[in-house]
Amino acid sequence: MMYVSSLKLTNFRNFEHAEFTFDQAKTAIWADNARGKSNVLEALYFLALAKSGRGARDRDVLRWGANYFVIDAQIEREDRSFPIRIAYDPLVGKKQASLAETSLPRLSDLIGAFNAVLFSPEDVDLVLREPAQRRRILDILVSQSNASYLADLEGYQRVLAQRNRLLKDRRSALLSHPEQVEPWNEQLSNLGARIISRRLEALNDIQHLLSEYYRAIAPTPEKMKASYRSPISMETRDQGREILFEALTTRLPQEVELRYTLTGPHRDNLIFTLDDKSVHQFASQGQLKTVLLSWKLAEATFLEQQTGWRPVLLMDDVFSELDPNRAKAVLNLIPDFGQVVVTSARDPDLDFGAHGFRLLKL
Ligand SMILES: Nc1ncnc2c1ncn2[C@@H]1O[C@H](COP(=O)(O)OP(=O)(O)OP(=O)(O)O)[C@@H](O)[C@H]1O
Ligand SMILES: [Mg+2]
Questions:
Q1: Any residues with CB less than 8 A from the CB of 351 and at least 6 apart, and which?
Q2: Ligand found nearest the CA of 88
Q3: How many domains does the chain have?
Q4: Atom of ligand 1 lying closest to residue 40 CA
Q5: Is the Cβ atom of 13 under 6 angstroms away from ligand 1?
Q6: pLDDT given at position 273
Q7: What stretch of H or E contains 239?
Q8: Which of 23, 189, 203, 230 could form a disulfide with 268 if both were Cys (CB 3.0 to 4.6 A apart)?
Q9: What is the DSSP code string of 281-311?
């Protein structure tokens, strides 16, 4: 297992200077609204991906009026204990990460050193209703278990942006000489097929976990599933690459018209269903929350299976909107995980102390 033993914040969100200590036990951060509970979890999650798990820009997590922020943490693993430091200074225009006091050439080098899973309440609506956000949670899942996935994803975005620019700037040239765009098609289909096949593998691996966690939390018997929708259906990666290349070639006239690349992992969709009914259209708030929660618990278990390290589970305001049965079921699942930090504005309803949590007041 791995866990964070201390966290020191400087100019991060509402914290000018703050220090927190944690142990392996479950921690419940209990405080009134607007005290900084979500911000503490956001800071902890920063240690995993070097960016906000809530999709905020660096300059927005910088404390208002301040000119730099620093997150310092100490990570404990069975084999070693090491610090992670993330510093951002907009004047230098740079965010810099260091691991065990060695500064890292690229931020992506940090990924994998520390793994965390964040459940964020604003994701419930956002993620489950917007295709782009659903792709994001899938990408987060795969990225932390596979360092080269993130590199592929960044490469894909770069080539995609170049190709889209060509579609805009060289319209007539491309229509008469479609072979001009071939080098981009080549790269996109290569990277795209790799991305899609990794997504499919990961989804396949977590499918049974998803339905198990859903069943453990919801007292109702509907079956939860996540499926990947893509016009590129492939048995093998090579086949996927060929189909993608073919689609990029044949749809070019339409793409020149729309000035946008129409096929590829950036357009694929992840669909959640309960008894084959789309969650985004039909689920209630509590059901949506249960779906996202099942996804996050499955993600934590998947990461442990893939990396050998049990990630830290960060659950922001997970209990509001859950009925007492579901809340109790979640509390009963938590002991199966490693370090867990939950937040709530209402301890008395849940009685964290009685469930073995250490209470941290802000
Ligand atoms: N960049 C920033 N600089 C300074 N303060 C900020 C910044 N971003 C957010 N805040 C403030 O931090 C405070 C705490 O926010 P946070 O979301 O962590 O509260 P919370 O304890 O989770 O509350 P709730 O129980 O309502 O979810 C808010 O008042 C917010 O306005
Ligand atoms: Mg909050």
A1: none
A2: 1
A3: 2
A4: 18
A5: yes
A6: 95
A7: helix 237-250
A8: 230
A9: HH--HHHHHHHHHHHHHHHHHHHHHHHSSPP
Helical axes 324-333 vs 182-217, angle rounded to 10°:
110
**pLDDT tens per residue across span 159-176:** 999 999 999 999 889 889
Does ligand 1 lie within 6 Å of residue 57's CB atom? Answer: no
200-209 long-range CB contacts below 8 Å, 24 or more apart? Answer: 200/228, 202/138, 202/141, 202/142, 202/145, 202/302, 203/138, 203/227, 203/228, 203/270, 205/302, 205/305, 206/141, 206/298, 206/299, 206/301, 206/302, 209/297, 209/298, 209/301, 209/302
Residue ranges for the chain with pLDDT beneath 70: 348
Residue of 323, 273, 276, 324 whose CA lies nearest to 294: 273
Q: What is the span of the domain harbouring residue 33?
A: 1-115+313-362
Q: Is the pTM of this model over 0.85?
A: yes
Give the pLDDT of residue 108.
85
Closest CA to 183 of 249, 260, 261: 249
Return the amino acid letter for 67.
Answer: N
- Domain boundary among the residues 283, 308, 333 is at 308
